[in-house]
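[audit] Reproducing an earlier prediction to check determinism. Same input, same settings, fresh worker. If the tokens differ from the archived copy the diff job will pick it up downstream; this log only records the rerun itself.
[audit] input (254 residues):
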Amino acid sequence: MNLVGTILVYVAFAAIFLGAVSVVRPLTWIGIPGRPYGVAVLLSGVVVLLIGVSLPAPEKRIAEQRTILDDFVPAYQFAESHTIRIAAPRERVFAAIRDVTANEIMLFRTLTWIRRFGRPGPESILNPPRHEPVLAVATRSGFMKLAEERDHEFVLGTLVVAPPGWRPNKDKKPTPEDFKALRLPGFALAAINFRVEDTAKGDALLTTETRVYATDSSTKWKFATYWRVIYPGSALIRVMWLRAIRHRAEKMPG
């Protein structure tokens, strides 16, 4: 349903753009013969956009805990997962996960620049230094290391939505258990893992999964709109990230 919503949102964007252009100058070569037709296309795009962002995001719940990520986000409404096979042992893959930099991830800086609308902003996962490990930047700029099983799984968490005016308690540093227990209305929690497993052929299988759990229906609806807009870029970043890890791991000296 989330993928359908994303498709509808981008179809709507295309229709709104083509309709708006045709109101000024009809695009007869794609079948919009006049300005009234341009208005119709534009309004159709608005309707499709409203449908796309309003589609339900049903909650999913794991049946059995198999990963550390399952322990922290056993229920979620939004998720994406990507896997890549790497011709290297788990230890080298895990080291590459920790050490890979933004400069090694193709299109990372371009897509994050678009995501922050070209604003310079403070150092963060969306604006990391070129030659510093991405995970190191993440853990000091909004992400918390939730758990780590050496050479197997690494899990980060963050708040992607918080109630207006909410501020974290400066007198108490949040813990992974606080993240796990947070269920107050108005929040959306996101967690991402990198999980490495051995294969029968002696190489490694690397998976990254992102899950988001919104604690109430209003927050879920708001985040659904954001998710369906950024999903294509987010998925592309994850794929390029895994490829960068593979490249680094396979080039490491044995």
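[audit] rerun output stored. Observation attached for the diff report: Strands lie at 60-61, 75-76, 78-86, 144-149, 153-161, 188-198, 204-214.
[audit] end
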